Amino acid sequence: xxxxxxxxxLLLFLLACGTAxxxxxxxxxxxxxxxxxxxxxxxxxxxxxxxxxxxxxxxxPAINNKPVPGFIIRLQVRKGLGxxxxxxxxxxxxxxxxxxxxxxKTLRKAKxxxxx
Length: 116
Ligand code: HEC
Prior knowledge:
The protein has one domain: Cytochrome c-like domain (Cytochrome Bc1 Complex, Chain D, domain 2, Orthogonal Bundle), CATH 1.10.760. Helix content is 50%, strand content 0%. Bound molecules: heme C (HEC).
Protein backbone atom coordinates (compact mmCIF):
# COMPACT_ATOMS: atom_id res chain seq x y z
CA UNK A 1 0.00 0.00 0.00
CA UNK A 2 1.28 3.44 -0.80
CA UNK A 3 2.23 5.54 2.18
CA UNK A 4 -0.18 8.31 1.26
CA UNK A 5 -3.10 5.89 1.47
CA UNK A 6 -2.17 4.60 4.88
CA UNK A 7 -3.50 7.49 6.94
CA UNK A 8 -6.93 7.79 5.27
CA UNK A 9 -7.33 4.02 5.59
CA LEU A 10 -6.46 4.16 9.26
CA LEU A 11 -8.97 6.92 9.84
CA LEU A 12 -11.66 5.00 7.97
CA PHE A 13 -10.93 1.98 10.07
CA LEU A 14 -11.19 3.96 13.28
CA LEU A 15 -14.47 5.51 12.23
CA ALA A 16 -15.93 2.21 11.07
CA CYS A 17 -15.33 0.48 14.38
CA GLY A 18 -17.08 3.06 16.50
CA THR A 19 -20.24 1.10 17.30
CA ALA A 20 -20.82 0.57 20.98
CA UNK A 21 -22.10 -2.61 22.51
CA UNK A 22 -24.09 -1.85 25.61
CA UNK A 23 -25.62 -4.14 28.16
CA UNK A 24 -24.76 -6.37 31.07
CA UNK A 25 -21.03 -6.76 31.59
CA UNK A 26 -19.89 -10.15 30.31
CA UNK A 27 -16.40 -10.05 31.58
CA UNK A 28 -15.04 -12.11 34.42
CA UNK A 29 -12.43 -10.69 36.77
CA UNK A 30 -9.17 -10.87 34.92
CA UNK A 31 -6.60 -13.18 36.44
CA UNK A 32 -3.63 -10.95 37.02
CA UNK A 33 -0.55 -13.08 36.80
CA UNK A 34 2.14 -11.14 35.00
CA UNK A 35 3.59 -7.95 36.48
CA UNK A 36 3.12 -6.10 33.18
CA UNK A 37 -0.57 -6.96 33.22
CA UNK A 38 -0.94 -5.85 36.83
CA UNK A 39 0.75 -2.54 36.08
CA UNK A 40 -1.35 -2.16 32.95
CA UNK A 41 -4.48 -2.62 35.01
CA UNK A 42 -3.47 0.29 37.23
CA UNK A 43 -2.91 2.45 34.15
CA UNK A 44 -6.23 1.36 32.70
CA UNK A 45 -8.16 2.05 35.90
CA UNK A 46 -6.60 5.45 36.15
CA UNK A 47 -7.05 6.65 32.57
CA UNK A 48 -9.49 4.49 30.64
CA UNK A 49 -11.89 2.92 33.14
CA UNK A 50 -14.25 5.88 33.40
CA UNK A 51 -15.13 5.76 29.71
CA UNK A 52 -14.50 2.08 28.96
CA UNK A 53 -15.57 0.41 32.21
CA UNK A 54 -13.90 -2.99 32.40
CA UNK A 55 -13.29 -2.70 28.65
CA UNK A 56 -17.03 -2.52 28.08
CA UNK A 57 -18.93 0.34 26.49
CA UNK A 58 -19.51 3.41 28.61
CA UNK A 59 -19.09 6.89 27.27
CA UNK A 60 -16.69 5.23 24.83
CA PRO A 61 -17.32 2.03 22.85
CA ALA A 62 -16.36 -1.40 24.15
CA ILE A 63 -12.70 -2.11 23.52
CA ASN A 64 -12.60 -5.74 24.60
CA ASN A 65 -14.79 -7.24 21.92
CA LYS A 66 -13.02 -6.64 18.66
CA PRO A 67 -9.62 -7.37 17.27
CA VAL A 68 -8.42 -3.79 16.97
CA PRO A 69 -4.71 -4.13 16.18
CA GLY A 70 -2.37 -3.00 18.92
CA PHE A 71 -0.79 -0.22 16.90
CA ILE A 72 -4.18 1.35 16.30
CA ILE A 73 -4.94 1.36 20.01
CA ARG A 74 -1.56 2.96 20.66
CA LEU A 75 -2.24 5.55 17.99
CA GLN A 76 -5.64 6.28 19.45
CA VAL A 77 -4.29 6.67 22.98
CA ARG A 78 -1.58 9.07 21.75
CA LYS A 79 -3.72 11.08 19.34
CA GLY A 80 -7.21 10.81 20.83
CA LEU A 81 -10.33 10.62 18.67
CA GLY A 82 -13.55 12.59 18.93
CA UNK A 83 -14.50 12.78 22.60
CA UNK A 84 -11.62 10.57 23.62
CA UNK A 85 -8.70 12.68 24.83
CA UNK A 86 -5.11 12.20 23.73
CA UNK A 87 -2.69 10.87 26.32
CA UNK A 88 0.80 12.19 25.76
CA UNK A 89 3.97 10.54 26.99
CA UNK A 90 4.06 12.83 29.98
CA UNK A 91 0.78 11.30 31.11
CA UNK A 92 1.16 7.69 29.97
CA UNK A 93 4.82 6.76 29.47
CA UNK A 94 5.92 4.36 26.74
CA UNK A 95 6.41 1.70 29.42
CA UNK A 96 2.96 2.31 30.88
CA UNK A 97 1.50 2.02 27.40
CA UNK A 98 3.25 -1.33 26.92
CA UNK A 99 1.76 -2.54 30.20
CA UNK A 100 -1.62 -1.18 29.23
CA UNK A 101 -1.50 -3.15 25.98
CA UNK A 102 -0.63 -6.31 27.92
CA UNK A 103 -3.62 -5.71 30.17
CA UNK A 104 -5.96 -5.08 27.24
CA LYS A 105 -4.85 -8.35 25.65
CA THR A 106 -5.62 -10.23 28.86
CA LEU A 107 -8.96 -8.51 29.06
CA ARG A 108 -9.80 -9.63 25.56
CA LYS A 109 -8.78 -13.22 26.24
CA ALA A 110 -10.83 -13.34 29.43
CA LYS A 111 -13.76 -11.96 27.47
CA UNK A 112 -13.46 -14.68 24.85
CA UNK A 113 -13.51 -17.39 27.48
CA UNK A 114 -16.58 -16.08 29.28
CA UNK A 115 -18.62 -15.02 26.26
CA UNK A 116 -19.20 -18.53 24.90
C1 HEC B 1 -13.25 10.79 28.15
C2 HEC B 1 -13.62 9.44 27.84
C3 HEC B 1 -12.56 8.47 27.35
C4 HEC B 1 -11.39 8.08 27.96
C5 HEC B 1 -10.83 8.59 29.26
C6 HEC B 1 -10.81 7.06 27.12
N1 HEC B 1 -11.60 6.86 26.02
FE1 HEC B 1 -11.24 5.52 24.52
N2 HEC B 1 -12.86 6.23 23.52
C7 HEC B 1 -13.73 7.20 23.98
C8 HEC B 1 -14.70 7.51 22.95
C9 HEC B 1 -15.84 8.50 23.07
C10 HEC B 1 -14.36 6.69 21.85
C11 HEC B 1 -15.04 6.68 20.47
C12 HEC B 1 -14.35 7.72 19.64
C13 HEC B 1 -15.01 7.92 18.32
O1 HEC B 1 -15.22 6.93 17.61
O2 HEC B 1 -15.27 9.09 18.00
C14 HEC B 1 -13.22 5.89 22.25
C15 HEC B 1 -12.62 4.93 21.44
C16 HEC B 1 -11.58 4.10 21.85
C17 HEC B 1 -11.02 3.03 21.06
C18 HEC B 1 -11.49 2.63 19.67
C19 HEC B 1 -12.59 1.64 19.81
C20 HEC B 1 -13.29 1.46 18.53
O3 HEC B 1 -14.11 0.56 18.47
O4 HEC B 1 -13.05 2.23 17.59
C21 HEC B 1 -10.01 2.48 21.78
C22 HEC B 1 -9.14 1.31 21.37
C23 HEC B 1 -9.94 3.21 23.02
N3 HEC B 1 -10.91 4.19 23.03
C24 HEC B 1 -9.04 2.95 24.02
C25 HEC B 1 -8.87 3.74 25.15
C26 HEC B 1 -7.81 3.56 26.11
C27 HEC B 1 -6.75 2.47 26.04
C28 HEC B 1 -7.96 4.54 27.05
C29 HEC B 1 -7.07 4.83 28.24
C30 HEC B 1 -5.72 5.20 27.96
C31 HEC B 1 -9.13 5.32 26.69
N4 HEC B 1 -9.65 4.80 25.53
C32 HEC B 1 -9.63 6.40 27.41
C33 HEC B 1 -13.71 7.81 25.22
C34 HEC B 1 -12.68 7.70 26.13
